């Protein structure tokens, strides 16, 4: 399997190189040159299989023989053994044809665990094989950092440095990162905001001299392995509800669009999907693009669904690449223009997208209303991200007979603020985490200055060769 850039101007890579590389040198994102195809029979045969088995069948063609089957199965089994539910991503029925897929049973209670549990293990495997060590650096305002730390805490060949804005993440989110006391896990609280932390990470990737040749690795959602791991649960839930013998639809609380792009990829691989509904909060670039062809940046709004607070949806570029018939030059031109000024999609690609995608924006007041309403109608306490999906599924679905699967992206205990503001007493953390608030924490506070952070990274990494 070869991976090519969405901007058409970077060398093609194999799977291992694509996973280790992240962003393509031309600024594009890697996508498979051709997608594996699953026949109706192969999809039908997934029904009733354990999640890890479906994961193996779906991901194997993307790995393209670069990892032997036994090893790949081992990485998958270990990744999903960390989930606290035997079904890994259980489905719950909400109404006669609306279902919730709970993606939050992993170690940090959000869907990012599904991908990051596997990505950490994949990176460690490839580095070990090469006899190399690696350093992960990332900035987080919440979910990604903790999921990345949990995915890497057992890796021998990796150090992970996660920067979070000092005193600006919730206690639960901070503690999910800072109570992981493994030697190769380093939490840095930056005296600044999230943008300052992200700028330091960007500077460090642009000039990696401070690492003396050790590889710096990004685990953000543009890494192809994250998309790949997320494709699996679209197949798993689809066959559970009758695919390929009937179509299913999905609603996805969206930000960087990695989750939804995985679903779209599943449909391109043969899963019969009637419709995808994009749910956004007030940061609605995806909704504006689809409804008004307004592909432009707006100022960031801080909402009750903070993991969806974005200005740009980075993985949308992968969808545009297909919508523009995989013409990397046109994608590059469009995105360069987008960086400078408000822009719009060409008619034909926009029309293609509108055939398969619906969208809906849910503001903060509505999020609170939906949390109350969903509880009254179903007994389910939704987290604020999932609440956007619940409402979008009802408003924007194209028909009432196709089963709709809304992706529950986080556990309500992780975003207790919104739950309390909706009028509930709160949501209990699951048993495995009930002592989170009493655990020992470890982190360092550093000024918002790239040089200080880089010196800290160079001095503190333990997995050095
Ligand atoms: C990251 C995240 C999202 C957004 O997912 P994307 O793949 O960026 O679209 C939604 N909900 C929660 C809880 C998240 O952590």
TrEMBL record:
InterPro entries: Ser/Thr_deHydtase_PyrdxlP-BS (IPR000634), Thr_synth_N (IPR029144), Thr_synth_N_sf (IPR037158), Thr_synthase-like (IPR004450), Threonine_Synthase (IPR051166), TrpB-like_PALP (IPR001926), TrpB-like_PALP_sf (IPR036052). One of its GO terms (molecular function) is pyridoxal phosphate binding. It is an enzyme of class 4 (lyase). Keywords: Amino-acid biosynthesis, Lyase, Pyridoxal phosphate, Threonine biosynthesis. Its EC number is 4.2.3.1. It catalyses: O-phospho-L-homoserine + H2O = L-threonine + phosphate. It holds the Pfam family Thr_synth_N. This is Threonine synthase. It comes from Kushneria phyllosphaerae. The gene is thrC.
